[in-house]
Design brief:
Layout (H helix, E strand, L loop, with lengths): L20 H4 L19 E8 L30 H19 L1 H7 L10 E5 L3 H15 L4 E7 L16 E6 L4 E6 H8 L3 E6 L3 H21 L9 H4 E5 L17 H7 L1 H13 L26 H20 L3 H8 L3 H18 L6 E3 L10 H21 L13 H15 L11 H7 L6 H12 L3 H10 L2 H9 L6 H14 L3 H8 L2 H10 L7 H15 L3 H9 L2 H11 L7 H15 L3 H9 L2 H6 L8 H17 L5 H15 L7 H17 L1 H28 L8 H11 L11 H12 L5 H15 L3 H12 L13 H7 L16 E4 L8 E4 L13 H4 L4 H7 L17 H27 L6 E7 L6 E4 L5 E5 L3 E6 L4 E7 L7 E7 L6 E6 L3 E6 L8 E7 L13 E4 L4 E4 L5 E6 L4 E7 L6 E7 L13 E6 L4 E5 L8 E5 L1 H4 L5 E6 L7 E6 L3 E6 L21 E4 L5 E6 L5 E6 L3 E6 L4 E5 L13 E6 L6 E5 L3 E6 L6 E2 L2
Helix pairs in contact: 4-5, 8-9, 8-12, 10-12, 10-13, 10-15, 14-16, 16-19, 17-19, 19-22, 21-22, 22-25, 24-25, 25-28, 28-30, 29-30, 29-33, 30-34, 31-33, 33-34
Length: 1274
């Protein structure tokens, strides 16, 4: 902690309000979810191999160097008999393609006749043999599978020869007379059909690809002109090509390399790469000469990664896969060529090697679709380095046979790539996109136990970057390997496996991804077992619960599978273990949302939870959870329960009614998020019992009209006031409580309907809109209700002033007709009575929200919904491993907050030093003055900016008194009420403006001084059980406890905890007198250490003050009562004050008689019990008389020993606490300055020596030591 910031105020212990994601983020789901259905993968199951070698014959017009390349499939035909050489070449090619086609291996054993198998090899054959092989293989594999057509034309004429139609035909041999003939590409296409993969290993191969695509386009054009009666030919789209050279190029003839160099790169990549490396490096490296005997005999097996041969194959596969990953920016093309089909991927990866090898001999291979060349990519250097390491080791072993064998990998390729990826993750910021080129290498490293744990950790950190990282992860094709690890998980990486799958499922919602987990029992049990694993962290268990929730979402099949794993019981045990509020609320949210997804349209899961008593034991109890997010999750789960049951049963209905009754208790929750979800849940209840709710709506409407008439009769005799005589009050109460007029009670549908009508008038706009849709859905089919509404709307008068908005409902509440626990209390505040001078009865005004039209077929489940569950799921797509920006020392926000805190601390230090010097001087110079356009109710300073805020009936204006300009002006208290008081919350860090109106609606505004970023943090009804508009609405806030106190009722002070957004038990004042002043003292004092003083001081209309110790139980919170001596003067308390440091334990009270009283708490008599103080009813205070019975408002400075008094006689008087009058302010500055009007609000700056005043003349003025008067007009 910065010593400059760590002062005696203990501000570092104050919690920042509305700083959770539910307050700062928009409640919407993940916009980057992958939902598109994957295309059906095409399998490659057959091959037609045509070899035109003509061994010993040089084709016409074809030149060969001497010596030239002669090896075919690594067989030298010059060293064997002609027949044996041909048979060896055919067998090698068939064996190579059989290893490439795993499906073909299974079919070969079924056929004794080799001509009927999925792989046909023809050498120096005639056209009929070619066509027969194509027909047989296509018939064998089916029309949907891909067929490989391999053509080796090393012994044939050039395809560019005019006799071959300039590339539209390929050369074969007439078997009888052994001369060349052609096979048309058109006939070949018709025989082989699509899809197919063509490999052309001959001169001018690129010309064949070009002509093939021309013919394909011609066929498509013919099909279009023919009327499109047959299926569309898709040869160009569905046929792939690999060609050994480009147009007008011939194959290389280096005698040190095989003649079929291109084919060797495709089918025996490691061996070809070794020979190419050897012939390129043998001149520069003397040790290479010693390794020539190892080129065809590398120790070990290619399938064993622990051997040299296996390591070479492993490294080369990683290199080729990584290069393939960087070829295509279009990752759909990458998946088509390298992932969807294993044989195609092997051949195209071999082409990447061939591109490097062939270009070394000035030959450029060709592909369709076209792939760019990567022959010069830097990654090839890593491959060369790995080869150098291994071949050098072989050379050393040959020189020194006794050299001990190395354990593990000889090359450092994988270690280097892992280090580079780790550096990339740390180099980029949390929100920057990381280079993903090493992902294919990580895929290969997952196959090795040596690197697996570290690789998984890096994969988890990469996926933690966000949805883009998950998309890259899925595109590269690591998912099958990750799934395989679920079957045999190690405890070393269990937690990271859960994180990886949470990231995947948060973004990828395709059914194929869920099936990957659910189709194997070991995989789904992995997540179920993690729920209650005591060795796992709570965050890991929450992620596991989230994975199960996603797997169960919107799939009855998946729900049944998970129910078979006894998931209901596991979730029940999980919630039981997390019953303490101090446990992880994230795990509770995930568990409840998982239950909701299991219940969704699945009655079997629903009744399983009923039998386990999960609803009553856990879900309903979570409605009282201290975290709003958890309460919202519980409401959502209950709403899903109400939306699921369809079969009628008495037991099911009783459960639904019990759930609805519990939901009604949350209608007054302090969080708009909870109330929105309550409306959605109740809409499901309305949908289940639509006809009964229509009847309830008619009943409620008739009863309200009856109440209106009875209140009208009472008002004709005498207007109902807030404090009538006891006899009249009891008479009115008895009349309205008669059996004929009593509201329907105990009817669950009526109570729910009244709650929805009340939520239709909620302070928060989104809650109002949702409730209006539900109400409109019911009322639109009730003509009687519509007629009643129309007649009511025509009776609305023209007067719409705030004072005319009082309602008979509020008067009825004052009489005690609705208790504080009634769920129907919102309903009555919607009717406003207005008496006309002439007329027989009152007119009632309704503030109706504009309801959007809905389709008649739409149900509440379709028109009323929120994105809260989607937002909860989207939270797992955000960073989970890294710290939040506010706690991350490397983040810009953290640095900004540190700088802000230092500036604030420095400003406070300078201000207090200035107060020590000038805190006793006069405050008489006008710094700033304006004429407000309406009467202000409250003015005050911003603690750290040169701003003042002015709150009137409707607007809040933020004024810069140094620059004399309006910073911001906005409507601050909703449409239905008028603002009455305002305070600042969290002034030390992120100030919020809290405003209360005369309807007891509280609005909290975030960034209120910034027109660009200000927003409504929350809005709620402080109390709805009887708003008495004659009692002042006063706000006060305890920074350490986060408690907001609101007055406006007799006998009680309403307390809300803004951090939890829940209502605390009311503070009973034990008096019939209205409360007129209030202050809170809950700061940590130096003599109490970490113990917090939690005191509330209240002043009343009769002049009595009471001190409440809020740490005590409700019945014993009043610890002092004083002011009886002042009470005899028939005076009310104007203001009460306790200084923040309060080292001398002095309480300041101001009374309308003009007396200032100073009460010394040190003179209290200590007694037993929980109270630290005892009553001082007869103790005489130190009294200072400042005015004569006309004191209107008083302000005390927090740190300076001064106070300002506003009087009815148009003036402001400044006194110090020792009884010395410092000065009077009677006139505004300027030429012929007008007289200062009666003050209605005064406030000192929290730290500086400044005073702001607002008067009945609408003037707002700032006073201090400046001698330069300024003014502002707007």
């Amino acid at each position: 902690m910065d010593p400059l910031y760590n002062d005696d105020d203990g501000e570092h212990r104050i919690r920042v309000l509305f700083n959770d994601p539910i307050h700062k983020e928009e409640i919407v789901g993940n916009k980057n979810i992958i939902t598109q259905i994957e295309e059906t993968k095409v399998r490659t199951n057959g091959a037609v191999i045509i070899i035109i070698s003509m061994i010993g014959i040089i084709p016409p017009e074809k030149q060969r160097i001497t010596p030239c390349a002669v090896k075919e499939t690594w067989v030298d035909p010059t060293q064997l008999d002609l027949t044996k050489a041909k048979n060896r070449i055919k067998e090698n090619l068939k064996r190579q393609f059989t290893s490439i086609l795993p499906q073909a291996q299974k079919k070969i054993s079924r056929y004794n006749d080799r001509d009927r198998g999925p792989i046909r090899v023809e050498m120096d054959c005639a056209p009929n043999k070619v066509f027969s092989a194509c027909d047989q293989v296509r018939k064998n594999v089916g029309k949907a599978s891909r067929v490989i057509f391999y053509y080796n034309g090393h012994g044939a004429m050039s395809c560019a020869h005019p006799s071959s139609e300039n590339g539209r035909s390929i050369w074969v041999v007439n078997g009888t007379i052994m001369h060349y003939t052609v096979v048309s590409l058109t006939n070949l296409m018709e025989r082989l059909e699509a899809p197919a993969l063509y490999i052309w290993d001959c001169d001018n191969a690129g010309l064949i690809v070009q002509r093939f695509n021309e013919i394909a386009r011609e066929k498509k054009e013919i099909w279009k002109n023919a009327g499109r009666d047959t299926p569309e030919p898709r040869f160009e789209e569905e046929c792939l090509h690999l060609a050994a050279c480009s147009k007008d190029q011939v194959l290389p003839q280096n005698p040190e390399m095989p003649a079929d160099m291109y084919t060797s790169c495709l089918t025996s990549t490691v061996k070809t790469a070794l020979h190419y490396w050897f012939h390129q490096q043998k001149i520069t490296n003397i040790h290479i000469i010693d390794c020539i005997e190892y080129l065809d005999n590398i120790p070990g097996k290619y399938s064993a990664r622990s051997t040299m041969a296996g390591e070479l194959d492993w490294v080369l596969t990683a290199v080729l896969d990584t290069l393939a990953w960087q070829i295509e920016p279009d990752y759909d093309r990458f998946k088509e060529l390298f992932r969807n089909c294993k044989p195609v991927g092997l051949l195209f990866r071999g082409h990447i090697l061939a591109d490097r090898v062939m270009r070394a001999y000035n030959v450029a291979p060709v592909t369709h679709p076209r792939l760019p060349s990567l022959a010069g990519h830097p990654l090839w250097r890593s491959w060369d380095l790995a080869l150098d390491s291994i071949m050098t080791e072989l050379s050393l072993r040959k020189i020194r046979p006794s050299r001990p064998a190395l354990h593990g990998q000889i090359s450092t390729f994988f270690f280097d790539q892992l280090t580079e990826f780790k550096v990339n993750l740390t180099q980029y910021g949390k929100h920057d996109k990381v280079d993903s080129r090493q992902l294919p290498v990580l895929l290969q490293m997952l196959m090795s136990a040596q690197y697996r744990t570290e690789t998984l950790e890096l994969v988890g950190k990469f996926l933690d970057r966000g949805p883009y990282a998950v998309q890259k992860f899925l595109d590269v094709g690591i998912l099958p390997y990750i799934r395989q690890l679920l079957t045999t998980p190690s405890r070393d990486y269990k937690y990271i496996m859960v994180l990886i799958w949470a990231k995947i499922l948060a973004t990828d919602r395709r059914h194929s991804t869920a099936d990957v987990v659910l189709n194997q029992p070991e995989c789904r049990r992995f997540f179920v077992n993690m729920l209650n694993d005591p060795d796992m962290r709570l965050q890991t268990r929450a992620m596991s619960c989230f994975c199960l929730s996603i797997l169960a979402k919107n799939s009855q099949k998946n729900q049944e599978i998970l129910l078979g794993e006894n998931l209901i019981k596991e979730l029940d045990d999980c919630l039981m273990d997390m019953s303490s509020p101090n446990k992880s609320s994230k795990l509770q949210n995930c568990a409840v949302l998982c239950l909701a997804n299991l219940w969704d349209r699945n009655e079997k899961a629903l009744w399983a939870s009923v039998r386990a008593n999960t609803i009553d034991n856990h879900v309903i109890k979570l409605l009282d959870h201290p975290h709003p997010e958890t309460r919202t999750s519980a409401v959502y789960a209950l709403g899903t329960f109400l939306n699921t049951r369809r079969k009628e049963s008495d037991h099911g209905e009783s459960i639904e009614h019990r759930i609805a009754s519990n939901l009604l208790k949350t209608c007054g929750d302090g969080s708009p998020l909870v109330r929105k979800e309550v409306v959605v849940a109740l809409s499901r209840y309305v949908q289940q019992y639509e006809q009964r709710f229509q009847s309830a709506a008619v009943t409620v409407n008739e009863e309200v009209m009856t109440i209106r008439q009875r209140v009208s009769i009472c008002e004709d005799e005498e207007s109902v006031s807030t404090s009538p005589s006891l006899n009249k009050k009891l008479a009115l109460k008895n009349t309205l409580l008669s059996p004929q007029s009593r509201l329907t009670s105990g009817n669950k549908f009526v109570e729910t309907w009244k709650c929805l009508k009340g939520l239709e008038k909620d302070p928060h706009q989104e809650v109002r809109e949702l409730a209006s849709k539900v109400v409109f859905y019911i009322e639109k089919n009730i003509p009687k209700l519509h007629n009643s509404r129309k007649s009511s709307e025509t009776a609305i008068g023209s007067d719409s002033s705030p004072e005319s908005r009082s309602s008979p409902g509020s008067n009825l509440s004052n009489l005690g007709l609705m208790g504080p626990t009634s769920p129907i209390v919102y309903h009555y505040s919607q009717y406003s009575s207005k008496r006309t001078i002439f007329g027989k009865g009152p007119k009632f005004e309704e503030f109706e929200e504009e309801r959007p039209p809905t389709h008649p077929e739409e149900s509440p489940a379709q028109i009323v919904k929120t994105e809260f569950p989607d937002w909860c799921e989207a939270s797992f797509a955000k960073p989970l491993l890294s710290k939040g920006q506010e706690s991350d020392p490397n983040s810009e926000l953290f640095v900004h907050n540190q700088i802000r805190d230092r500036k604030h601390a420095e400003k406070k230090r300078k201000a207090r030093a200035e107060l020590e010097k000038r805190g006793h001087e006069k405050i008489e110079a006008q710094i700033f003055g304006i004429k407000h356009n309406s009467r202000p109710h409250r003015v005050n300073f911003h603690p750290f900016e040169p701003y003042i805020y002015v709150v009137d009936d409707t607007y809040c204006s933020i004024l810069d008194f140094e620059c004399s300009q309006t910073v911001h002006k906005f409507e601050c208290c909703g449409r239905r009420g008028s603002a009455r008081d305002a305070i600042l919350l969290n002034p030390h860090k992120k100030p919020f403006l809290c405003v209360v109106n005369n309807e007891a609606e509280v609005f909290v505004w975030r960034a209120f001084e910034d027109p660009q970023t200000f927003s409504l943090a929350t809005a709620f009804k402080a109390f709805a059980e009887g708003v008495n508009k004659k009692i002042p609405m006063i706000l006060n806030y305890g920074e350490f406890t986060s408690n907001l106190f609101v007055t406006g009722q007799l006998k009680r002070i309403v307390s809300w905890n803004l951090f939890k957004e829940t209502r605390y038990p009311d503070i009973q004042t034990m008096t019939e007198m209205p409360l007129t002043a209030m202050t809170v003292f809950d700061r940590t004092t130096p003599d109490s250490g970490d113990q917090q003083e939690n005191l509330l001081l209240a002043g009343f209309y009769d002049g009595v003050c009471k001190l409440f110790d809020l740490r005590n139980p409700t019945h014993s919170q009043i610890v002092q009562r004083f002011g009886e001596s002042v009470r005899s003067k028939s005076t009310s308390v104007v203001n009460v004050h306790i200084k923040p440091n309060n080292d001398n334990k002095i309480i300041y009270t101001a009374h309308s008689s003009g007396d200032m009283c100073f009460w010394d708490l040190r003179k209290s008599r200590c007694g037993g019990g929980q109270s630290r103080y005892q009553p001082l009813a007869h103790e005489a205070p130190k009294t200072l008389s400042v005015v004569n019975n006309n004191l209107k408002t008083v302000a005390f400075h927090n740190y300076a020993p001064v106070m300002a008094c506003g009087c009815y006689d148009q003036g402001i008087r400044i006194w110090n606490i020792w009884g010395d009058k410092l000065n009077d302010i009677k006139f505004h500055e300027g030429f012929m300055g007008q007289r200062v009007g009666p003050s209605i609000s005064l406030a000192f700056h929290p730290f500086e020596y400044k005073l702001v005043s607002a008067g009945l003349d609408n003037c707002v003025t700032v006073y201090g030591k400046s001698t330069q008067p300024q003014s502002l007009r707007y």
